Amino acid sequence: MALYNLENKRVLVTASTRGIGKAIAKAFLEEKARVVICSRSRVRVEKALNELGEIGEVYGIPVDLTKREDVERLVKFTVSKLGGIDILVYVTGGPKPGGFTEISLEDWNYAVKLFC
Q: Which CATH number fits the domain that encloses residue 42?
């Protein structure tokens, strides 16, 4: 039984082929939403599509969220598959694992770039 009225909502979930992003995509699919997932890795996208496709209508595309042209391609792909976007869930990773003083300034800047 659906908890929310998400049936046929058009959802884009970024960084959604594993971890938190994948769990979010799965939850939307269980609520009968239509979902687009993405990752930088084509292999991860295909694997997640195989798993999530058993639950509901899901599409996927490999993109790099740090590249404007990839973000634009992601939006165009989503609109072409779903007819629009009702819900955007922006998930992305943080800096590399490690202690605060162990992470380089470049790693911090890269992570910040993903969030902004």
A: 3.40.50.720
How far is 33 from 97, CA to CA, in rounded Å?
Answer: 33
Decide if 52 contacts 26 (C-beta within 8 A).
yes
Cβ partners under 8 Å of residue 55, min gap 6: 26, 29, 30
Residue 56 in domain? yes
Q: pLDDT tens, 24-49? A: 999 999 999 999 999 999 999 999 99
CA angle, 35 then 109 then 91, to 5°: 15
**Paired residues of 52 in beta bridges:** none
Whether 12 and 80 have beta carbons less than 8 Å apart is answered as no
Whether the pTM exceeds 0.90: the reply is no
Edge-first strand order for the sheet with 34-39 is 58-62, 34-39, 10-13, 87-89
Report the domain count for the chain. Answer: 1
